[in-house]
């Protein structure tokens, strides 16, 4: 028996097929899809499955579920439709790196994670169509194990040279203007571009050892993305 196709998955497939068939095509109307009730509901389920700590507002998934998820999603959708949605500051925590030092991790609020997940559902299939087959990072249904298997396959075919490169502090130095230009090669919907710009310029909240709050970034910030959000990759 064939499994039923989820309606959202069907839409994602259509976006992918359109982008794959027409590499120069630019998408003008996407924001309304991000605002759809079913997309936001699915985005919440994805965010809920990933769990994670609360953001600067301290609100947890349990609190949202207890207070009424349907009303919460309706309120979030209304903010998007009326274009009054504004992301909250990102809570920054430092996590140790395996080789020493620390990596900054940005934790958005749950409401922002849900909107970002909704945007990712709509945008990901478009850019997925443009990626080279040999790319494995931050792609759906691909992981590091798949990359290792491909390396092993190529070694068995006689390829033995390896080029290893790492861009230092890459996410911290991405120029916003160049990033938005790259996105705009495919996405022309100004409301979607506005959303991305809001997330890029969201303030970052940090607390010192005494618990004192300090804000950085914001509208004046011209480069870097807060690592940890759904949309960062």
From TrEMBL:
PROSITE patterns: RT_POL. One of its GO terms (molecular function) is RNA-directed DNA polymerase activity. It holds the Pfam family RVT_1. InterPro entries: DNA/RNA_pol_sf (IPR043502), GrpII_Intron_Splice-Mob/Def (IPR051083), RT_dom (IPR000477). Transmembrane segments: none annotated. Residues 76-233 form the Reverse transcriptase domain. Keywords: Nucleotidyltransferase, RNA-directed DNA polymerase, Transferase. CDD domains: RT_G2_intron. It comes from the Bacteria. SUPFAM superfamilies: DNA/RNA polymerases. PANTHER family: NUCLEAR INTRON MATURASE 1, MITOCHONDRIAL-RELATED, PROTEIN YKFC. Belongs to the bacterial reverse transcriptase family. This is RNA-directed DNA polymerase.
